Amino acid sequence: MNRILIKQATVVNEGIIKVADVLIVNDRIERIAHRISDKNATVIDAEGLHLLPGVIDDQVHFREPGLTHKATIYTESRAAVAGGVTSFMDMPNTIPNTLTQSLLEEKYSMASQTSLANYSFFMGINKHNLEEALRTNTEDVCGITDDGLYFNNDEGILANYPDFLEQLFSRSETLVALHCEDDAVIRSNMHSCREVYGDAIPFRLHSAIRSEEACLKATKRVLEIAQKYRNRLHIFHVSTHAEVQLFDRHVPVGKKRITAEACVHHLWFTEADYDRLGAKIKWNPSIKSELDRNVLIQGLNENRIDIIATDHAPHTLAEKQGNYFQALSGGPLVQHALPAMLELYHQGKLSLQKIVEKMSHHVAEIYRIIDRGYIREGYFADLVLVDLNKPHTVTNENILYKCGWSPFEQETFRNTIVTTFVNGHSVYDRGQFNEASKGMRLRFSKYR
Q: Which of 116, 335, 428, 447 could form a disulfide with 83 if both were Cys (CB 3.0 to 4.6 A apart)?
């Protein structure tokens, strides 16, 4: 029997910070109290450390199957637990795209053998598989998405096809998560830039090409249709101050029919960083202005924006080379998401309670994940111990992504991830991994 007693940790949970002992028995939290004695437990002295619920990242691209030269479920889940991420939800733009229930189950089978973190996989949707997507089991699968996919062969994303969205929202009984940018606006902006620069478009113009207008126009279109049917809609990676104002701050997250997220890169970088980092911060949607970043943070604090995710999308360094058109969009983030957000705590921009709320509690609420996302008796022991007063610098030597690079390289964070527990097992501790146990498939309430 696995018994672990975490002693005198500073627990951050459900808006409260307090010193407590936490007893883990097998894969669950057995007891939380000011003082616990258990002579049969392995004792971990956590005095001076903060204990948080493990991060649940609802948007990653772990690239398996078909793109394993960039990443695998094993390599990226290993990086995830080193960063305090205990559960992830993976996107369908693998090769082949996850557009059938059988392909979806194949990904679950892969993860069961190799993932160090808990896992779920989105069912992909495009023009040709509506009926197949609607068969998705809401208790076993996190949701349906078009993220990373084209709607019709090589053309567009779902947000640009209102007639199809009407069909989807009128029939779907699960959560639908969408990437919102307007293709026509992007094409027009791209044409204007190309007329001036040819192929040598500066990376700093990425925010002008994938502009506020492109995001706002598509998001408004999708929201209007979703509100008509009161379906469960989740908007991925909101990136503009104008979009933030579209979301309700008064309804509790558990009662919202429409929810939204901000991503780590949009909360950290601004368009001023393009000249320094170039393609390394080329994401879709684009990183935009300092105003946009500040209002996204404000939106988190006001509860207009419900969660924080990574959109972890690794490419090899070779794939990030070349001109604007050659360098692929996306980058690795899952190992450094929590350290970066804890740095925002040090900067006075987010409280510890808000970070825990947006990276754990609310993700569990939005997706109706069973028994995870909180430090509660009876819940799975997905936990992370952090030292808020032990700085560490991101270097080539400690980056764990298979692609081997990070946009945070040479950044010093004033915190360190000490230990990560997944289902009660210490899978990462002070730079060492215990890979004897694997993560579990996430389970969800039937009704979203």
A: 335
